[in-house]
Amino acid sequence: MHFYTNSHICAQVIAPILKNEKNLAKFPQCVADDIKRQVHELSTSVYQIRGHIKGKTLLPFPQQGAKRIEAEEARVRESAGEECDMTLKNNIEAIIIKWAYQSDEVLSKDSANLLNEEGKYPGPMTEIKFWEAKCMNLDSLYEQMKAPTTKNMASILENTDSAYYPVFRSMFRNVVAALNEAQDITLYLKPLTQHFQCLEISDFPDTGSQLRPLMHCVCIVYSSSTYYNSPARIIVLMQETCNLLVEAARKYLEPSSLFQASDRSYDIFSSSCGVVQSSYAIKLGRS
What we know:
Blueprint: H1 2-19, H2 21-24, H3 29-53, H4 66-78, H5 86-107, H6 124-145, H7 148-159, H8 165-189, H9 192-201, H10 207-224, H11 231-252, H12 264-286
C-alpha cells in the first residue's frame, strides 16, 4: 500500500516538477539533461516494480517519449533512412538490449524448475497457476511489443539498417511463439482444476475413486494439446500429483499408528494405497 502511494506521488508530483522546463531553465544544459535522465530512470524503475508486483514484465521506453519517436519515425521513413536523430536511435538500441534480457528471463522460466527447489513439494495446482501467470505475462509483453510506439521504434531501426532490428524481430517472434504455447497449455489444463481441487480437500481413502476421471482428463490433455503432449510435460504434472497424494496420506495417517499393527486407520491406509495404485495402473494401461 505504501509503495503504490509513493509510486503515485513519484509519477504525478515529483517527475512532472523535475521535468518542467521552467524549473530547469536556471541550470546549465548539461545539468538539466542529467536531471531529466535520472528522473526518467527513476520513473521507469517505479513503473517496472509496479508491474513486477502484478506479475507482469513492463518494458521501458526511451526518454524522448512517444510523440518525439513518432515524429522521428515519419522523418526517417520519408528520407529513406538518410536523416535520423542518432541520439534517439542509440537510445532505442539500448532499450532493445534491455528488452532482450527481460524477454529471455520470461521465456526461460519452466514449471519443472519448481520441482528442483530443495524442501518444496509443489502440487498440481502449482503447474496450472504457473502457466496462467506465464500466459498473462507473455500476453502483456505481446501487447507492449505491438503498441504504436514500439512499431515506430522498429521502423526507425529497420529504415536505418540498424544491427538491432533483427534482434527485435527475433525477440518478437519468440514472444509470439511462447504466448501461443502458454495459451494452448492454459486452455487444456483449466478443466483439471476442479479435479485437483477436489483431491486437495478429500481424505486419502476417498482419493482412489477420483483418480480414474482425473487420469482420463490427463490423457485427453496429452492427446489433444499441441504443446503439452510431451513426456517431459506430463512427468512434471504426474510428479506434482504424487506430491499431492503423499501430502493427503501424511495428513490422514498418524505417525504413531505406524507401529500399531492392529490400528484400523493403518489398515484403511493400506487398502487405500492399493486402490490408488490400481487406479493409476488401469488408466495408464489403457492410455
